[in-house]
Design brief:
The complex is a heterodimer of chains A (about 160) and B (about 300). Chain A is mainly α and about 160 residues long. Chain A has 11 helices and no strands. Chain A has a domain at about 20-115: Dioxygenase LigAB, LigA subunit (Protocatechuate 4,5-dioxygenase, Chain A, Orthogonal Bundle), CATH 1.10.700. In chain A, helix 8 (about 95-100) crosses helix 9 (about 105-115). Chain B has one domain (about 5-310): Protocatechuate 4,5-dioxygenase, Chain B (3-Layer(aba) Sandwich), CATH 3.40.830. The chains are: A mainly alpha (about 160), B alpha/beta (about 300).
Chain lengths: ~160, ~300
C-alpha cells in the first residue's frame, strides 16, 4: 500500500515518524534496539547481512541499513532515536549522523549550530517556499505591494461569496 | 494536604549529561549552558520540595516500538538509570513515591485520563538530565534530594497527545495531588525542547523567536499555547521540537496565575535550543500585590474626586 499523503509531508527535509511508519519500520527499529547489547553489536559487526535476516526487513530497508543511508532509513520507518544506536555501534557521535543526514561535514554542521542553527525562514514548507520570497519582494517594491493588496481584495471578495 | 507549589521547565539534551559525566562543565561551550542553572540550583535548595513529578519522554531506552504508551506513570519504589549504549549514567538510582503515584493514578484515571501504570522501569537522560541541572552533579553512591514520580509521555511516535490534552492532564494531576492527605510540597517538571530537529535533511533547525514566544505565553497565556496544532510545532520548532507539549502538563498543574521567577535560554547545546523556566504559583496577598492594591485604591479615589468636581 502506498503511503497516504499527510499534511506534515509538506515540511521540507523531514520524515515524520507516524503510526504508519512505525508499523512499516518495526523491523528497522527493533534491529537498532538489539544493538543495545554488546553481544548483538559483535554479532552484527561479524556478519551484517546475516544478522539482519532475523528482523524480517524488506530489501530496501536492508539495503539502507547496509549502506548506512540514514535518511532512507527514516523514510522507510526508522526513527532517529533508534537509528542513532546504529551510528553509536559504528562509533560515530550524534553530530556526525546529523551532518551525514544534512549532507554536510561535521565541522560545517557544528559551525552552523554555533551560529544559531538552521534558520526556519525558507525551511517551513515545500509548497509555500516561493510565497515567502514573494512577500520579501513585496516589501521591497511598493508596486508589488499594491498588486498583492489587489489580490488579497479579490480573495476576500471570493471568500465572502462562498459564505 | 499535598500541593503543587511550583513548576520547572527544562530541556533534557543528552549531551548535557555527557558533559557532566565526563567532567567537561568548565569548557567555555558547556559553561555557557551550566551557568544558566546556578540560580536554579539555589532556588531548588531553598524550595526543598518533598516530591517531584517529572514529565519527560523515553528515548528508545525503557520503551522500544513494542509498546508505545501515550502517558506512563512510574509507580515503582525506584527507577534505575538506563543503559543508553554507553553504560548507565553515573547518577543515583531515582527513588519513587509509590503512595502518591498510586493516588495520582487512581484519581486521574477516574478523571478520564487513561494512564499506563508502570511498576518497573529504567529512566534515561530525559529524566536524569533535568534533575542534574536543578540539583547539581550527583554520584551513584549519593542520593537525589527528593523522591521522583516519573511521567513518561510519548512524543517519539506521531501523534503525541495534543497540547490541550497535556494541559488538561496537568489540571487533573493538580486535583489529584491536592486530594492526597499527607502534607507534601510538590514541584512538577516539564522537560524536553525547546526548538530542535535532529532527524533528516532539515536537522539543526532552531527557532529562537518561537521559543521566546512559547516561554512568554507559558507564563502569561498558556491557554493560547493549548491551541497550537502539532503541525505548527513540527514546522516551526522542528520535528523533535514537538516535545514542548510536555511543558503544558507542568503548566496545567499550576494555578492560572503564576510568577515567573527565573528564565534562561541559550543556543545551542549539541543540536538543541536550551530553554529553562521556573514558575511559582502566584502568592495570594504577596508583597507585590499588597503594594499594587493601594495604587488601585488611590486611582479609584482620584476618579471619584474628578467625578465629584464634574457633578
Amino acid at each position: 500500500m502506498a503511503r497516504r499523503e499527510q499534511l506534515y509531508d509538506d515540511i521540507p527535509g523531514t520524515f515524520v515518524f507516524d503510526a504508519e511508519r512505525s508499523r512499516e519500520g518495526y523491523g528497522i527499529n527493533m534491529f537498532c534496539m538489539s544493538l543495545m547489547k554488546d553481544e548483538n553489536r559483535k554479532a552484527f559487526k561479524a556478519d551484517e547481512a546475516e544478522y539482519l535476516k532475523k528482523f524480517h526487513l524488506t530489501l530496501e530497508q536492508e539495503d539502507a541499513i547496509l549502506k548506512r543511508n540514514y535518511n532512507r532509513m527514516l523514510e522507510l520507518g526508522g526513527n532517529i532515536y533508534f537509528t542513532a544506536k546504529l551510528g553509536a555501534t559504528d562509533g560515530h557521535s550524534f553530530q556526525h549522523l546529523a551532518a551525514v543526514m544534512t549532507g554536510s561535514t561535521q565541522d560545517d554542521y557544528a559551525k552552523m549550530m554555533l551560529g544559531g542553527g538552521r534558520n526556519v525562514e525558507g525551511n517551513r514548507s515545500k509548497s509555500r517556499k516561493p510565497a515567502v520570497k514573494a512577500r520579501a519582494k513585496a516589501k521591497a517594491k511598493p508596486k508589488a505591494k499594491a498588486k498583492s493588496a489587489a489580490k488579497s481584495r479579490a480573495k476576500s471578495k471570493s471568500s465572502s461569496k462562498r459564505k | 494536604m499535598a500541593k503543587i507549589i511550583a513548576g520547572v521547565g527544562s530541556s533534557h539534551v543528552p549531551a548535557i549529561g555527557a558533559a557532566l559525566d565526563n567532567n567537561r562543565t568548565e569548557e567555555p561551550y558547556w559553561k555557557r549552558v551550566f551557568s544558566g542553572f546556578v540560580k536554579s540550583q539555589e532556588w531548588m535548595e531553598k524550595t526543598k520540595p518533598d516530591v517531584a513529578i517529572v514529565v519527560y519522554n523515553d528515548h528508545a531506552s525503557a520503551f522500544s516500538v513494542d509498546l508505545i504508551p501515550t502517558f506512563a506513570l512510574g509507580c515503582a519504589a525506584e527507577f534505575p538509570p538506563a543503559d543508553e549504549g554507553w553504560g548507565p549514567r553515573p547518577v543515583p538510582v531515582v527513588q519513587g513515591h509509590p503512595a502518591l503515584a498510586a493516588h495520582i493514578a487512581q484519581s486521574v484515571i477516574l478523571d478520564e485520563f487513561d494512564l499506563t501504570i508502570v511498576n518497573k522501569m529504567e529512566v534515561d537522560h530525559g529524566l536524569t538530565v533535568p534533575l542534574n541541572l536543578l540539583c547539581g552533579k550527583r554520584n551513584p553512591d549519593e542520593k537525589w534530594p527528593f523522591p521522583v514520580i516519573p511521567l513518561a509521555v510519548n512524543v517519539v511516535m506521531y501523534p503525541p497527545p495534543t497540547g490541550h490534552r497535556c494541559y488538561m492532564l496537568g489540571k487533573a494531576i493538580k486535583k489529584a495531588v491536592e486530594s492526597f492527605p499527607d502534607d507534601l510540597n510538590v514541584v512538577i517538571f516539564g522537560t524536553g525542547g525547546l526548538s530542535h530537529q535532529i532527524s533528516g535533511p532539515r536537522a539543526g533547525l532552531i527557532n529562537s523567536k518561537w521559543d521566546k514566544a512559547f516561554l512568554d505565553n507559558l507564563s502569561k497565556d498558556p491557554v493560547k499555547l493549548t491551541k497550537i496544532p502539532h503541525i505548527d510545532y513540527m514546522r516551526e520548532a522542528g520535528a523533535e521540537g514537538i516535545e514542548m507539549v510536555m511543558w503544558l502538563i507542568m503548566r496545567g498543574a499550576l494555578e492560572n496565575k503564576v510568577d515567573e521567577v527565573y528564565r534562561f535560554y541559550t543556543v545551542p547545546a549539541s543540536n538543541t535550543a536550551v530553554g529553562h523556566i521556573i514558575l511559582e504559583n502566584a502568592k495570594r496577598g504577596s508583597a507585590r500585590k499588597a503594594k499594587r492594591a493601594p495604587t488601585k485604591v488611590r486611582r479609584a479615589a482620584a476618579r471619584t474626586k474628578v467625578d465629584r468636581v464634574r457633578s
